[in-house]
Amino acid sequence: MTEVLQMTKELSALQKARLNYQPKLPGVLKSGIKNLCVKNGINTTSVADQDDIKEIFQNLYGNPIVTFEQGAACTKEEVLNVGVILSGGQAPGGHNVIAGIFDALKEANTDNKLYGFLCGPSGIIDGDYREITKDYMNEFRNTGGFDIIGSGRTKLESEEQFMKSWNTCQNLNINAVVVIGGDDSNTNAALLAEFFTAKKAGIQVIGVPKTIDGDLKNDQIEISFGFDTATKTYAELIGNIARDANSAKKYWHFIKLMGRSASHVALEAALQTQPNITLISEEVAEKKMSLNKIVNDVADAVAKRAAKGKNFGVALIPEGLIEFIPEMKDMISNLNDTLALIEDDKEYKAANTAELKIQFISKKLEKHNSEVFTSLPQSIQLQLLADRDPHGNVQVSKIETEKLLIEMVEAKLAEMKDYKGKFSSQAHFFGYEGRCAAPSNFDADYCYSLGYNAFALIQADLTGYLSSVKNLTNPAEQWVAGGVPLTMMMNMEKRHGEMKPVIKKALVEIDGPVFKKLQDNRERWAMDDYYIFSGPIQYYGPSEVCDVTTKTLQIENA
Questions:
Q1: Looking at the DSSP assignment, which residues form a beta bridge with residue 469?
Q2: Cβ contact 257:234 at 8 Å
Q3: Cβ atoms within 10 A of the Cβ of 163, count?
């Protein structure tokens, strides 16, 4: 069994105070884990590709959305052992999900046990675990990070992995597994649930929606946990930079923000800080904006501000922007497929210089894609050729889009005869700064509720469900607890050259109210300085300061 390092006993005053914070629960869950019953809604279908999803999930497909009501119909009397997995990148509040599971589990029966599988899904595959005891749990309540058991990006998707996981569960007499993760991790949770059900293993699988990107949501999942804290953390940093820009009055700051497949983080951060320029990937795709079009628009904004004597500003750029630019998207798709095909190619492996690798790939790409690829700076080309993620896709966080735009905007300004300003730039990427921040009051409460609710779903003998807590713009007392079938959120997508079931990512809606809020203010924010300086996350003080939810949720539920 792998040893897990105990957290240091040297705690800050904030840490000590946060350990004593008591998270709030939805009213129905406050009645107690033994006083809940399930109310079934209508049976569900997947968001797309219904026949394919139904064929893959023959035992789980079509289950109803459920909500909890007060009652005693769900209580299990036998002793239950539950395993928990933290999967994928960190998100603030993960520890509170586990705390919610632990407290509900012990409330149901003090003999129940919670096992944490170490370092992500590999823990359940390899039988690497630790029991989470009361004393150990109490060290992590309301804290950021995933260090209670660690996380990992191993994919639970093969028959061999499922069999090893089953063996681990049998050795520990595990009755249920909770997977805390994003869309891909919860897709794997659904596949594991289907496997256990088909094998009549008697092991339930419940998912919990985690991702700071905010792209795991629908009518039942209003927000993924960690988004609230991460965007507030980024807003503080952006506000600091905006204050500096407005003080020095000599730098343009290009800030890339996490969000590969969706721009929710950039959009929320923009609404909180009101920068001069905000690029939204989904808008770029919708309007089929070329790279040159984006560069021209940014250069025009820079020039207009310079004409007013303002040689400074703040621009926000979503991490995944480059994949939404039509010609770049086509090229990257062709590049992903090409790299998958030549993975073992001897000639490519023998290419021992950057130039040789680039030349080799350029010849393998389709002609129009090769032209796009060769037009890019070598630094960007090499970043595009870097190791792929577990799905065979380019790791866009390693592509310095902010520096690419700075370089191209600078070149464009040099061509503009009427531009008399001075363009000095600074590049930033905010990602890891927000993933392990101490959770906001909202995320502390929401995550604890999601965990408590996850055990309620186990008590209700459900499997293949995602823990759902909604009605989130209201006080916690009015939150609605229940569960969503994971298959309801799925469609088929190409991964490693094959069509596979995945939870469909929720992108920014260009015709939605949140984007419209940005659109209505863009011109005003571009030319004048309406920067907002939110400061650090406030834990104590007036409720309207420390308990407020994100702008996104407020607008969506207005």
A1: 481
A2: yes
A3: 13
Angstrom distance (rounded) from CA 426 to CA 317: 13
User: 54: how many CB neighbours lie within 10 A of its CB?
Assistant: 15
Q: What is the pLDDT of residue 125?
A: 98
- Name which of 136, 142, 143 is nearest 113 in CA terms: 136
The residue-averaged pLDDT of 407-436 equals 95
* 504/481 Cα distance (integer angstroms): 22
As a whole number of angstroms, the distance between CA 154 and CA 260 comes to 19
Please tell me the predicted confidence (pLDDT) of residue 37: 93
At residue 13, the pLDDT reads 83
Residues 263 and 355 placed together within one structural domain of the fold: no
pLDDT tens for 455-474 read 999 999 999 999 999 999 99
Same domain? For 289 and 384 the reply is no
pLDDT tens readout for residues 335-379: 988 988 887 888 888 888 989 999 999 999 999 999 999 989 888
The separation between the first and the last C-alpha atoms of the chain, rounded to the nearest angstrom, is 50
Domain containing 389 equals 325-393
- Residue 74 confidence class, pLDDT cut points 50, 70, 90: low
Q: For residues 476 and 556, what is the distance between their CA atoms, to the nearest angstrom?
A: 18
Q: Which amino acid is at 213?
A: D
Strand ranges across the sheet with 129-131? 36-43, 64-70, 480-485, 465-470, 204-209, 176-181, 81-86, 113-117, 129-131
Instruction: Assess if residue 526 is contained within a domain.
Output: yes
Alpha helices in 31-182 (DSSP H): 50-56, 94-108, 122-126, 134-138, 159-172
pLDDT of residue 186: 97
Nearest-CA neighbor of 176 among 34, 77, 80? Answer: 80
| Residue 335 counted as domain residue | yes
Confidence band, pLDDT 50/70/90 cuts, at residue 554: very high
Run of H or E including 491: strand 490-495
Average pLDDT score, the chain? 93
Q: Please write down the long-range contacts of 541-549, taking CB distance under 8 Å and 24 or more positions apart.
A: 546/440, 546/441, 547/441, 547/442, 548/442, 549/228, 549/442, 549/472, 549/473
**193 shares a domain with 114:** yes
Q: Same structural domain for residues 260 and 359?
A: no
Any idea which residues carry the catalytic annotation?
213
- The answer to whether position 6 is within a domain reads no
Instruction: Say whether pLDDT at 490 is over 60.
Output: yes
The Cα–Cα gap between 264 and 282 comes to: 10
Query: Domain check: are 263 and 362 in the same one?
Result: no
Instruction: Give the confidence band of 2 by pLDDT, cuts at 50, 70, 90.
Output: very low
Same domain as 308, residue 285: yes
Please check whether residues 243 and 218 belong to one and the same domain: no
Query: What is the model's pLDDT at position 1?
Result: 40
